[in-house]
Amino acid sequence: MSVSRRTWLAGALGLAAAVTAAIAPPQPSVRAQGGDLVVFAAASLKNALDAINSQWQKEAGKSAKISYAASSALAKQIEQGAPAQMFISADIPWMDYLEKKDLIKKDTRSNLLGNRIVLIAPKDRASPVDIKPGFDLAKLLGAGRLAVANVQAVPAGRYAKAALEKLGAWASVSEKLAQAENVRAALLLVSRAEAPYGIVYQTDAAADVNVKIVGVFPDNTHPPIIYPIALTATAANPDAAAFLAYVRSPKAKPLFEAQGFIVLNSGRS
């Protein structure tokens, strides 16, 4: 590995670690405060869910303590006994993972939201990209790297990999990735011009004025992007069911839509 590449990777990894530390959930001993209503939610939900929590507090006089990180990390923490009472995942597989281990209340599970993945670039150097089979992403990247969430575990990264494979671009860029711990860390790499392009959710791009969407990945290039929600098996706080109902209610819908989410019917997933 060249010195310049080592330097770039060290800086990128340091930035990603800093972002992760800022939004990742603290250890259970720190989070748990008596009967607190603790919610674990995918990092991409931060803006919308913070707004919903604030509105719920104004209306009900109560609030949730929400920890944001990659769905994979949150699911693993719940498995290890973290005191979360509600989980909102950015994909179905990680909710399935907990359901198979009887770690959620199955009758409370539903599909909450939909989303899209997009190609972003720093706003001052953004030009439209025609995302179609055979598009030359490697050429666009040049000597730079593609910012993505971890493609093996994090939902946003797995969606990105699936789309690039479907479009025939994966082989040429698989060695040019700047993988981050979660989608918001990947977003920040592009926002700070540490990476020339990145793949994030449409909602993440909308939350950062320093990036611009240059292309949208067709829905048929990746599995449907669905956010399921459920109470955990150990949820005992009486406010947990109330907050779950509020998040799924018409009052929360415009706050999700304001961030670009697609609000789904609340049927069983």
Q: What portion of residues is helical?
A: 40-55%
Count of helical regions: 12
**How would a crystallographer describe the biggest sheet?**
6 strands, mixed
In CATH, the topology of the largest domain is named D-Maltodextrin-Binding Protein, domain 2
Describe this entry's structure for a reader.
The protein folds into 2 domains: 32-114 and 226-263, Periplasmic binding protein-like II (D-Maltodextrin-Binding Protein, domain 2, 3-Layer(aba) Sandwich); 116-221, D-Maltodextrin-Binding Protein, domain 2 (3-Layer(aba) Sandwich), CATH 3.40.190. The longest helix is centred in the first third of the chain and has 21 residues, at 3-23. Strand 1, helix 3 and strand 2 (65-69) form a beta-alpha-beta unit. The termini are far apart. A 6-stranded mixed β-sheet has the order 2-1-3-10-4-11. The protein is 41% helix and 19% strand. It is globular, with a radius of gyration of 18 Å. With 269 residues, the protein is α/β, with parallel strands linked by helices. The chain has 12 helices and 11 strands. Helix 1 crosses helix 9 and helix 4 packs parallel to helix 5 (92-100).
